[in-house]
């Protein structure tokens, strides 16, 4: 089982001719409410990849349609708390140039309690994993408890907070970062410096570094594996990283070889970038198997 302590957002997406200016009131050309949050996206990717995933998080009690949606995609929702706190959400303006301007409200995503964490982790065993991103509260507390229980911890520090990430690295078994996060973590301003600098700074840490359309690198001690991305026509890279993480962890939990896990994850995220949207663009395990067969 993988316990994903992650954000759940119910986003509001408005398509506009231009971003709203100070003092302006403007009608929107379209409106959509979309399930999002890196946490929820990664749970969906894990479930679609075939993993046994229990999402741990919180939403407002009137937003139970989220639970049905997650459940229909294969995510176990039994550990999601229903609170009297607004569900986390982003208010997204999308202009004619396809740029976005976003207001984020963390809401229930920051209302996890130590009691809830304790109760969840009491069930976990050494075969299980805990997954976290940086969109919820109690990160260090959760990791500490997981380590005490002998549960492995995967951390995707997004959005990156270098201070917090360095502080919790002793609890992390697998760190998953993209290029920008890797650069921010070690304080360098180009990708090549991060590729050499990150393993040099943390030689004992297992790190997955995704490299956008170039592919992915895995390193730990003297192991250094590179897998090239698949060449596809990218339309929208939203949720590429979340898809990658879900498929990679699912594969690793299946005891697949690292190279095989990375290849499957690259295939899954390649399919994801050819589709427009977030959680709905995450492929199924069968999509990925067919993609790899062609
Ligand atoms: P994030 O979405 O977190 O910024 P990346 O941009 O590194 O993460 O993308 C994650 C993975 O998605 C990459 O390792 C790669 O396998 C795949 N990917 C991303 N962009 C493309 C692309 N344009 N073409 C093919 N694969 C891509």
TrEMBL record:
Catalysed reactions, semicolon-separated: D-ribose + ATP = D-ribose 5-phosphate + ADP + H(+)
Domain Carbohydrate kinase PfkB: 5-284
Gene transcribed to yield this protein: rbsK
InterPro entries assigned: PfkB_dom, Ribo/fructo_kinase, Ribokinase, Ribokinase-like
Residues annotated as catalytic: 242
GO cellular component: cytoplasm
Subcellular location: Cytoplasm
UniProt binding sites for substrate: 9-11, 37-41, 135, 242
Pathway: Carbohydrate metabolism; D-ribose degradation; D-ribose 5-phosphate from beta-D-ribopyranose: step 2/2
Protein activity control: Activated by a monovalent cation that binds near, but not in, the active site. The most likely occupant of the site in vivo is potassium. Ion binding induces a conformational change that may alter substrate affinity.
A GO BP entry: D-ribose catabolic process
Co-factor binding comment: Requires a divalent cation, most likely magnesium in vivo, as an electrophilic catalyst to aid phosphoryl group transfer. It is the chelate of the metal and the nucleotide that is the actual substrate.
Binding site for K(+): 236, 238, 272, 275, 277
Chief subcellular location: cytoplasm
Family: Belongs to the carbohydrate kinase PfkB family. Ribokinase subfamily.
Protein name: Ribokinase
PANTHER family referenced in this protein's UniProt entry, alphabetically: RIBOKINASE, SUGAR KINASE
Binding-site positions, ATP: 178, 210-215, 241-242
